[in-house]
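Hi again,

Forgot to attach this to my earlier email, sorry! This is the prediction with glycine bound. I've pasted everything inline since the attachment limit keeps bouncing my files.
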Amino acid sequence: MPAEAAPRELRVELGERSYPIRIGPHVLADAASYQSLRGRPLRVVTDANVAALYLEPLLATLGLSAAETFVLPPGESNKSWANAERVLDWLLAARLPRDGVLVALGGGVVGDLAGFCAAVYQRGIDLVQVPTTLLAQVDSSVGGKTAVNHARGKNMIGAFHQPRLVVADTAVLGSLPPRELAAGLAEVIKCGLLGDAPLFARLEREMERLVGLDPEAVAEAVERCCLLKSRIVAADERESMDGGGPRALLNLGHTFGHAVETHTGYTQWLHGEAVGLGLCMAADLSARLGWLARSDADRAVALVRRAGLPVKPPPGMTPAHFRELMARDKKVAGGRIRLVLLRAIGEAAMTADFDPAQLEQTLLAFCAAAPAP
Ligand code: GLY
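Structure tokens for the complex follow:
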């Protein structure tokens, strides 16, 4: 058997809040990943699905018992204020001291909720992210965004709280359902499109290797995305308030995508699936505006399709639905929708300065392509 490649390590450079990201197969159960935590009181938050697969090896590696774990029910609906309160109550009952560390083992729901609890427990304790989905490994575990959902909106209550360490075990992706894997690939394609043209070209060569979870291809993609995100976060940690800073570019495809998620009640489309379609729509609009060659917009759509992601809106979704939902986006300023668009593959920019008639053409083209309800 060939020897396993050594873990890759990156750093998010944020002064005294800098932290390492350790990437590779089996780093979850490698004591070397957690050396910096030695002697610290630890607690783990996870969900029932992930616990069944990966809790035991993590606890054994950290020298913890099951009693030192809080297991949430799985699913986006559990990223709630009520569950954050339960976790906080459990931490208080356990008297976790201020030098304690909360370890988030799971996908974006667990990472966001545990991160939020770490941000507010006794005004903030250290957090370790152990992301177990591709989407969490390439996006949500890095950069310090934490949140719970509110009945009035997704991620409406939250805080910026950078982790102390991210441990991204690429071997665990083997247990992801194919839809979840594809959803994570949408964020990988997003990274290539917005800021890493060589990554995009590599994805064009290797998409089938990624879908087949080739260890080298997966570790390389996770590393490239984390590298891009770490640079963006280092430059614009809190997504500067005017929304024009580099972190806002990570929202490429998201304004279209959020419209689809809201239209379908957050129950039918995975976030990454909606982002994948959003990337296609953003590329199409960029081509209509003359920013991007039409052939490059077609390359974006072809890659999203090869990842196994939808490239058409859900049945029955119309341009009017998109218009109404996109107008509610957080990035709307002075009544104008601001969109992240592409100047080239590997170069994105945010703008409100586009002809609405061109946006309408994009909406019409994609909705006409949608299957009938
Ligand atoms: N997921 C986008 C960001 O972390 O800013």
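The two ends are 51 Å apart (CA to CA). Residues 139, 143, 145, 239, 247, 250 surround glycine (CB under 6 Å).

That should be everything now.

G.
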